[in-house]
Design brief:
The structure holds two protein chains of two kinds.
Chain A: H1 2-65, H2 70-85, H3 89-110, H4 114-118, H5 120-155, H6 160-163
Helix pairs in contact in A: 1-2, 1-5, 2-3
Chain B: H1 8-30, H2 50-57, H3 65-76, E1 80-86, E2 89-94, H4 107-119, E3 124-126, H5 137-154, E4 158-160, H6 164-188, H7 198-217, E5 220-222, H8 226-241, H9 254-257, H10 259-266, H11 271-275, E6 287-290, E7 297-302, H12 310-316, H13 322-350, H14 355-382, E8 385-400, E9 407-416, E10 423-425, E11 427-428, H15 431-436, E12 442-448, E13 453-461, H16 464-470
Helix pairs in contact in B: 1-6, 2-3, 2-5, 2-10, 3-4, 3-10, 4-5, 6-7, 13-14
Classes of the chains: A mainly alpha, B alpha+beta.
Chain lengths: 188, 476
C-alpha cells in the first residue's frame, strides 16, 4: 500500500510540475504576443502622429492659393481634430477613415488650381502625405496580423481555458468596414 | 613500356603538350597579381560605386552583395528610400516621380532600380519581396556583372589578364600539340573499316581541353592605376571593420549611416542589411511575398510531400484531377477488398471470429483505404470552386514512374487568395496551364480543393514583369 501511495504521490508531483511548466511557458508566449500587438500599435501611432503634423502645413499652403475653399479646409481641420481625440482601434480607425476622405477632397480641390499644383512645397507635402498614408496601411496590416495571432492564441484550446483569468483579453482590429476585402489604394 | 608509347610521334606530341603548358605557366607567372597592401584606415570614400568596390577588392570577382550594396547606395543618394515598418517588415519606396538622376544612372544601377520599379506596387516594394518577379535571374546577373566589369575597365582599374597578342599566342600554340596528337594517333592506331576513327576525337579532345584551361584562367587583373585605388578601398574596409555594429544594422539604417553602410555592404561588413535585400537571389520556395489586396505581405507556402515512388504516387491520390482520383480510389478499394481483405476474411474465422464480422472487417479495410480519397473526389466533382488570387509560386518536382528510365514531372502552383492567415498549400496543375502562368499573375482558377488540383485558369492581370515585357516600346 505504501509503495502505491508513494507512486501516486510521485505521479501527482510530476503532473503538477508539468502543469506549472506548461502554464509558465504559455503565459510567456501570450505575453510576447501581447507585446507584439502593443509594439505594432505603437508603430501605427507614430505614423498617425506624423500625418497629424503634416496636415496644418498642407492646409496653410492650400489656403494661400485657394482661400475661398473654406468648407473643404475646415472639414480637414475638423477631421484631424476628431482623429486626434479618438481612442481605441475601432473609433480611431473610423476617425482616420474620415480624415483620409477629407484629404482626398482637399487634393481634388487642388486640381483646379494650377499654381498650387506647381508649388514645390505643396508637391513635397503631397508626396510625404502619400508616403505616410502608405506606411499607415502597412503598419495597420502589421498590427492586424499581430492581433490575429494573439487572438488565435488566447481563444484556442487549451489556452482559452485560463487566458481570461490571467488577464489576456482579445484585442480589436484596426480597420474600417470594408477594409481588407478589395485591393487597397493608398495614393492620393 | 608498350611500344606505342616509345613511338617518336607520341614522344613529339607529349613534348608539344608539355611545351604548351610551360608557355602557359610562363604567362601565368608574368601576369600574376601581386598582393596589394591595404592603405591606411580611412573613412574617405572614393568616387567608385559600391558595386565597383565589391568587384575590385575581391580580385575581380563580383559577389551577391554587390546588388544589395547598389540598392543601399541608391537609398543613401536619395534616389529611393528604405523604411522600417516593423521588426520583420521594411519597404523600399520610390519617389512619386523618378528623379532626374535616374536617367544618368550607370547600367548596373539602372538594372537594380528597374527591378525595384517593376516590382513596386504604388511605388512601394517590401524588402523581402526583392527576390520576387518572374525574371530570368541568370540573365539579369550576367548583364549586371558585365556592366560592372565594363565600368571597372572603362575607369582604367581593371584590364583583361592576357592581352590580345598573348591570347593569340596561347591559342595558336595550342594547335601545334593538337596536330601532333592527330599525327601520333594516326601512327599508332589502326582502324578497321566501319570503326570510328579515333584520330579526330583525340585531336579535338586535346584542343578542347586546352581551350577550357585558357577559358578558366582567363580573367581580369588590376591595372597599375587600379592598384592604389584598391589599396585605398582596403583601407576603408579596415576602418569600417573597426565598427562591429555595422554588421547588425538593418537596411533602413542607411538613413543614418548614409553611403558608408552601402560600402560596408560591398566590403562584406554589413551582413544584416545585405540579407534583408535579396536583389540578386532566387526566390525562396517556401516563403513568398504577395501584393494581392494592395499591400505587400509574406505568404508561407507548403507543398504536398514529395512522392518518392510510383506506388506512393498512386496510393496518395492527391493533386490529381478529381475524376482520376475517383477511378483510382475505386480501383485501389477493389484491390484492397480482394487481396488483403480476402486474407482477413479467411484468417479471422480461424480465431473464432464469426464470418459476418470477418466480412464486415474486409469491407471496413477497403473503405478505410479508398474511402477518404473517394469522398474528396466526390465533393470536388459535386462542388466546383472558382478562386481569384495571385500566383505566388510556380514550381516543378520530379517523381519516379514505374518505368525506371522515365521521370515524371509534377507542376505546382501556390495561390494567395487574400485570406488573412497567410499560409497556402500548393496545388497540382496540368503542364499546359503551368506554362501559361507566371509568378505575380492575378488569376481566376477552377480548383478541386479537396483533391488539391487546379484544372483551369485564366490570367486576369499579368504580373508587372510580364506586362513590362509585353508592353509596346514607349515613344522616344
Amino acid at each position: 500500500m505504501a509503495i502505491i501511495a508513494v507512486a501516486l504521490f510521485g505521479i501527482l508531483v510530476i503532473l503538477v510540475i508539468v502543469g506549472v511548466v506548461f502554464l509558465a511557458m504559455t503565459y510567456n508566449r501570450l505575453v510576447r504576443r501581447r507585446n507584439e500587438v502593443d509594439n505594432a500599435w505603437a508603430q501605427i501611432d507614430v505614423q498617425l502622429k506624423r500625418r497629424f503634423d503634416l496636415i496644418p502645413n498642407l492646409v496653410e499652403t492650400v489656403r494661400g492659393y485657394a482661400a475661398h475653399e473654406r468648407q473643404t479646409l475646415e472639414a480637414v481641420v475638423a477631421a484631424r481634430a476628431g482623429a486626434i481625440n479618438a481612442t481605441g482601434p475601432v473609433q480611431r480607425a473610423q476617425a482616420e477613415g474620415a480624415l483620409t476622405g477629407a484629404l482626398k477632397s482637399l487634393f481634388a480641390v487642388a486640381e483646379a488650381y494650377p499654381e498650387l499644383k506647381a508649388n514645390q512645397n505643396f508637391l513635397g507635402l503631397q508626396e510625404e502625405l502619400s508616403a505616410t498614408e502608405s506606411r499607415i496601411g502597412y503598419t495597420r496590416q502589421y498590427y492586424n496580423d499581430a492581433v490575429l495571432t494573439y487572438n488565435n492564441a488566447i481563444q484556442t484550446v487549451p489556452t482559452s481555458l485560463f487566458a481570461g483569468s490571467l488577464g489576456f483579453r482579445a484585442r480589436e482590429y484596426f480597420q474600417t468596414p470594408g477594409d481588407q476585402r478589395g485591393p487597397v489604394q493608398v495614393r492620393f | 613500356m608498350p611500344a606505342e608509347i616509345q613511338h617518336p610521334s607520341v614522344i613529339a606530341a607529349a613534348g608539344a603538350v608539355v611545351a604548351w603548358f610551360l608557355l602557359l605557366l610562363a604567362m601565368i607567372f608574368r601576369t600574376r597579381v601581386p598582393d596589394i597592401t591595404p592603405g591606411p584606415p580611412t573613412s574617405d570614400l572614393g568616387p567608385e560605386s559600391p558595386a565597383i568596390v565589391d568587384y575590385v577588392t575581391a580580385n575581380g570577382r563580383l559577389s551577391d552583395e554587390a546588388a544589395s550594396a547598389t540598392l543601399l547606395d541608391l537609398a543613401a543618394r536619395g534616389i529611393l528610400r528604405i523604411e522600417e515598418i516593423g521588426p520583420e517588415l521594411s519597404l523600399v519606396r520610390l519617389r512619386a516621380h523618378d528623379p532626374p538622376e535616374v536617367a544618368t544612372l550607370p547600367e548596373y544601377e539602372r538594372l537594380v532600380y528597374d527591378h525595384v520599379r517593376t516590382l513596386a506596387r504604388d511605388r512601394v516594394v517590401a524588402t523581402g519581396a526583392l527576390a520576387e518577379g518572374a525574371r530570368d535571374l541568370g540573365e539579369w546577373w550576367r548583364r549586371f556583372r558585365k556592366a560592372v566589369l565594363g565600368e571597372a575597365r572603362a575607369a582604367g582599374l581593371f584590364m583583361p589578364r592576357w592581352s590580345k597578342p598573348q591570347m593569340s599566342l596561347l591559342s595558336t600554340a595550342a594547335f601545334v600539340p593538337t596536330a601532333l596528337v592527330w599525327v601520333a594517333t594516326s601512327q599508332v592506331t589502326t582502324t578497321e573499316r566501319g570503326e570510328d576513327d579515333p584520330r579526330w576525337a583525340y585531336a579535338f579532345g586535346t584542343l578542347i581541353a586546352m581551350g577550357a584551361i585558357i577559358g578558366r584562367l582567363r580573367g581580369n587583373r588590376p591595372t597599375e592605376r587600379g592598384r592604389p585605388v584598391i589599396a585605398a578601398w582596403l583601407g576603408v574596409r579596415d576602418h569600417l571593420a573597426r565598427n562591429p555594429r555595422l554588421n547588425e544594422q538593418p537596411a533602413a539604417a542607411v538613413t543614418v549611416w548614409g553611403r558608408h553602410l552601402a560600402y560596408a555592404a560591398a566590403l562584406g561588413l554589413a551582413g544584416r542589411a545585405v540579407v534583408s535585400l535579396p536583389v540578386s537571389l532566387p526566390a525562396d520556395d517556401q516563403r513568398a511575398w504577395s501584393d494581392y489586396g494592395g499591400l505587400w505581405h509574406r505568404v508561407s507556402v507548403r507543398y504536398p510531400r514529395p512522392r518518392t515512388s510510383a506506388l506512393i504516387h498512386l496510393l496518395r491520390l492527391r493533386c490529381r484531377p478529381p475524376v482520376q482520383v475517383l477511378f483510382a480510389a475505386l480501383a485501389v478499394g477493389v484491390i484492397v477488398f480482394v487481396f488483403p481483405g480476402l486474407l482477413l476474411r479467411f484468417l479471422l474465422p480461424a480465431f473464432g471470429i464469426p464470418e459476418t464480422l470477418a466480412r464486415l472487417a474486409q469491407l471496413a479495410v477497403a473503405l478505410l483505404v479508398a474511402g477518404p480519397p473517394l469522398l474528396r473526389a466526390v465533393i470536388d466533382l459535386a462542388t466546383p470552386t472558382t478562386v481569384d488570387g495571385q500566383v505566388v509560386r510556380l514550381r516543378t518536382t520530379n517523381f519516379e514512374t514505374f518505368s525506371n528510365e522515365k521521370k515524371g514531372l509534377d507542376h505546382w502552383m501556390a495561390l494567395d487568395d487574400g485570406r488573412r492567415h497567410r499560409e497556402v498549400t500548393a496545388h497540382g496543375l496540368p503542364g499546359e496551364l503551368y506554362d501559361r502562368l507566371a509568378e505575380g499573375d492575378v488569376v481566376r482558377v477552377g480548383v478541386a480543393a479537396k483533391t488539391g488540383w487546379v484544372h483551369s485558369g485564366q490570367v486576369l492581370q499579368p504580373s508587372r514583369y510580364r506586362a513590362e515585357r509585353t508592353a509596346p516600346p514607349s515613344p522616344a
